[in-house]
Design goal:
Helices cover about 35% and strands about 25% of the residues. The protein has two domains: about 160 residues, 3-Layer(aba) Sandwich (Rossmann fold), CATH 3.40.50.300; about 55 residues, no CATH class. The longest helix has 15 residues. It has ten helices and ten strands. The strands form two sheets. The protein has a six-stranded mixed β-sheet, sandwiched between helices. A four-stranded antiparallel β-sheet has the order 2-1-4-5, covered by helices on one side. α3 crosses α5 and α3 packs parallel to α6. The chain is an alpha/beta fold.
């Protein structure tokens, strides 16, 4: 059974059809890229999957459960996590406390009131920070991190609930080439326990880490396939030659 099935999803904003009957399928333990020209509907589709927008028609099924009309918090409990394009770390808290709060999100209120969770979660927080090359910045304010490190911190926070599917919207936006390379190296091991849907403009980055690509154009699926199939697609070549 596929992990994520999006079928016939349509979303309109007034007279604008942002998504016009989109279908995508994401398998377990796979990275699935969404690419296409600006305005093609990539971020709108990601927000529909996340619950930031409800589609006007169509269905979204996660691990066999229809989540089309679920609010984001319920989707999170079903195993979905997301990181949108704008970094949303808490800048005046330490790097450590940002991860702590993310881990506490689904903890019972009683354990939080009695301050039991901080000590219990310490080893897991330390391991998470080490995985994302942030262990030596644990006590620094999040605002003191570089842009790339803030992105890594937010991805780490998104993974604290151990989701089955992580949605990433332009995770390398604004990064240096070295930070983009490092981001790919940090993400690849995640495939062992979490699938991803990634919107990204850096085609070299997305081809290096993704198993499959869906190409959107004007709110519709232009093509879908493996990296080699998309690279050989005449339809995709035309779009990227004439409109990107």
């Amino acid at each position: 059974m596929p992990l994520l099935e999006v079928r016939g999803v349509t979303k309109k904003f007034g007279a604008l059809t942002a998504l016009g009957g989109v279908d995508i399928t994401v398998q377990d333990n796979s990275f699935h890229g969404l690419i296409g020209p600006n305005g093609s509907g990539k971020s709108t589709l990601l927000k529909a999957i996340a619950g930031a927008h409800f589609p006007d028609s169509g269905s979204i099924v996660l691990a066999g459960k229809n989540i089309t009309k679920m609010v984001p918090s319920d989707r999170s409990r079903r195993g979905l996590s997301f990181k949108f394009q704008i970094t949303a770390v808490l800048p005046e808290l330490s790097v450590y406390d940002n991860v702590l709060l993310a881990m506490q999100a689904h903890k019972p209120i009683w354990s939080l009131l009695r301050s039991r969770s901080r000590q219990a979660l310490h080893d897991e927080i330390a391991s998470t920070l080490d995985r994302f090359q942030l262990a030596d910045r644990a006590n620094d304010l999040a605002s003191e991190l570089s842009h790339g490190q803030q992105q890594w911190l937010e991805i780490a926070m998104a993974l604290t609930q151990k989701p089955r599917l992580l949605l990433l919207d332009e995770p390398t936006g604004g990064m240096s080439p070295e930070e983009r390379r490092a981001t790919g190296e940090l993400l690849i091991p995640i495939k062992q326990f979490c699938s991803m849907v990634i919107v990204e403009h850096d085609l070299d980055f997305i081809k290096d880490i993704c198993d499959r690509l869906t190409v959107l154009d004007n709110g519709r699926v232009l093509d879908d396939g493996s990296i080699k199939e998309i690279e050989a697609s005449s339809k995709v070549q035309e779009v990227y030659t004439t409109r990107v």
